[in-house]
Amino acid sequence: MTYQIITDSTSDLSDAYVAAHDVAMLGLTVTLEDTTYQTVGPERLTSDVLLAKMAMGAKPVTSQINVGQFSELFKSVVKAGNDVLYLGFSSGLSGTYQSAEMAKQLVLDELPSAHITTIDTLAAASGEGYLVKEAVKLRDDGATLEEVVTALQDLIPRLRSWVMADDLYHLARGGRISKTAATVGTLVNIKPIIDVDPAGQLRQVGKIRGKKKALKTLVTNTLTDFDPAYPHIMIGYSGDPDVAEEVKADLLASDLITEVTLTPLGPTIATHTGTGTIAIFSIGKTQRL
Hints:
The protein is α/β, with parallel strands linked by helices. The protein has helices at 15-20, 47-55, 67-79, 96-110, 125-140, 145-155, 168-173, 179-187, 211-224, 241-252, 267-273; strands spanning 3-8, 23-26, 29-32, 35-38, 61-63, 83-88, 116-120, 159-164, 190-196, 202-209, 232-237, 259-264, 278-283.
């Protein structure tokens, strides 16, 4: 039986990509100045608009995809005669994946013959998008749903996410770092180095003085444990494509890497990072600890 790949807007995949590769996408929402915006579709909130509002003091908040939205989409896929493969936003960062699990059970109660597979990517932004793209490649090469799941179970714990945030205020606002650390870090130009732990949560693993040194650290960390069988790297950025291009050039200077894709961080993730964030996503040789 054929299967439909589904993901959410935090994967930061473009409308063109999901349309061309038959990927269904549900969107989280962002509330900004008392108005709630969609993050998918033609009327969606763009990161440029969001970041401009945040620069003027706006404090947006995000909301997860609800059970009803998942249930409706899952049922429509099943009733069309397809299996479901959902790759979701990290459960360590949002309740979205739990909503998908609840929806799955509701649909199975109504349609017990349905086949619905939900996978917690334990990732976000282009890290989540990386895994979706790998699933699409395998599907297009003729892999069964079970074969795709097996591959993802290998890749998910090896996905590397190295992040540098330039604007510490929004990390503090979201509880990712303390307000004191944000204030001190801003005063002395300290940039936190952040990764995603095995539970899919953000953690601070270092502090580097100066943006250029911090970016070099991201590149070094990426190359230290890099699986050449997956020579494609993805970079997410918010608000500063020129810096992302510089990081791309540094990565391509390595003989190991053949392709680097730049993708703006979507509004859901940018809400929590602000402008000036750079994130590098790759597959490592070993599982992350």
